[in-house]
């Protein structure tokens, strides 16, 4: 009996190990543990997140000013954060969020959450490849973006390479500065010139 039990235990251990390895996506063939993106590491995920953010702010007109805020890493994911330095007035926030939401929808993102709060609105979406993206507003129209990757291969993550277009002070928390009459003022929306 003892001789039979040992081979059965070894077979069971091998089967369990095989199932666990297949479930974790160790082979790199497609999505595995937590939706891992095949062949992508944390640096690649950070660059993908940067591209998602740059494409989003590129769709916003007139331009907004922004700065890099932080990069964080988990056990198999990476998040990038940006602060919008252009103050967006309460009257313009709906317009701003509408532009972002339309761009995300046309980019194939699935809108997961829309918080229509007048003071602190938020939109959260997911890209077709499983990246989460969020835009939210904080105190007095300060906007924030965040992109979080799905599970990817572990690697070092370098800071973003694109230079921010917003002004901040070395060693200080970014302070919003108003440089856009459209987003921060109650000016009429751009449109056809009125006839006189």
Uncertain residue segments: 5-35, 177-183, 187-196
Strand order of the largest sheet: 1-2-6-5-4-3
Name the shape in a single word.
Answer: globular
Per DSSP, the total helix count is 4
Mean pLDDT comes to 77
User: In angstroms, what separates the terminal alpha carbons?
Assistant: 102 Å
What share of the residues does DSSP label as strand, in percent?
A: 15-25%
Reading the helices and strands in chain order gives HHEEHEEEEH
Given helix and strand content, the structural type is: alpha+beta
Largest sheet: 6 strands, antiparallel
The number of strands is: 6
Helical fraction equals 25-40%
The value of Rg in angstroms is 23 Å
Describe the overall structure.
Helix content is 31%, strand content 19%. It has 4 helices and 6 strands. The protein has helices spanning 2-23, 42-58, 90-106, 181-184, and strands at 66-73, 78-84, 110-115, 122-126, 132-137, 143-148. The protein has a 6-stranded antiparallel β-sheet, covered by helices on one side. The protein starts with a helix and ends in a 12-residue tail after the last helix.
Helix and strand layout, with pairings?
Elements: H1 2-23, H2 42-58, E1 66-73, E2 78-84, H3 90-106, E3 110-115, E4 122-126, E5 132-137, E6 143-148, H4 181-184
Antiparallel strand pairs: 1-2, 2-6, 3-4, 4-5, 5-6
Short note summarizing the structure:
With 196 residues, the protein is α+β, with helices and mostly antiparallel strands. It has helices at residues 2-23, 42-58, 90-106, 181-184, and strands at residues 66-73, 78-84, 110-115, 122-126, 132-137, 143-148. Strands 1-2-6-5-4-3 form a six-stranded antiparallel beta sheet, with helices on one face.
């Amino acid at each position: 009996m003892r001789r039979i039990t040992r081979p059965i235990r070894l077979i069971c251990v091998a089967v369990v190990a095989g199932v666990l390895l297949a479930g974790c996506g160790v082979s790199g063939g497609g999505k595995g543990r937590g939706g891992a993106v095949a062949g992508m590491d944390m640096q690649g995920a950070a660059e993908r997140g940067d591209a998602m953010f740059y494409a989003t702010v590129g769709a916003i007109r007139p331009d907004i000013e922004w700065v890099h805020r932080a990069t964080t890493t988990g056990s198999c994911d990476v998040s990038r954060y940006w602060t919008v330095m252009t103050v967006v007035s309460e009257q313009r926030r709906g317009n701003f969020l509408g532009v972002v939401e339309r761009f995300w929808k046309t980019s194939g993102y699935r809108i997961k959450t829309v918080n229509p709060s007048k003071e602190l609105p938020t939109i959260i979406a997911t890209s077709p490849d499983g990246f989460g993206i969020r835009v939210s507003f904080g105190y007095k129209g300060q906007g924030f973006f965040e992109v979080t990757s799905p599970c990817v291969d572990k690697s070092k993550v370098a800071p973003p390479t694109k230079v921010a277009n917003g002004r901040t002070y070395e060693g200080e928390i970014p302070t919003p500065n108003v440089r856009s009459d459209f987003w921060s003022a109650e000016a009429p929306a751009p449109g056809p010139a009125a006839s006189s």
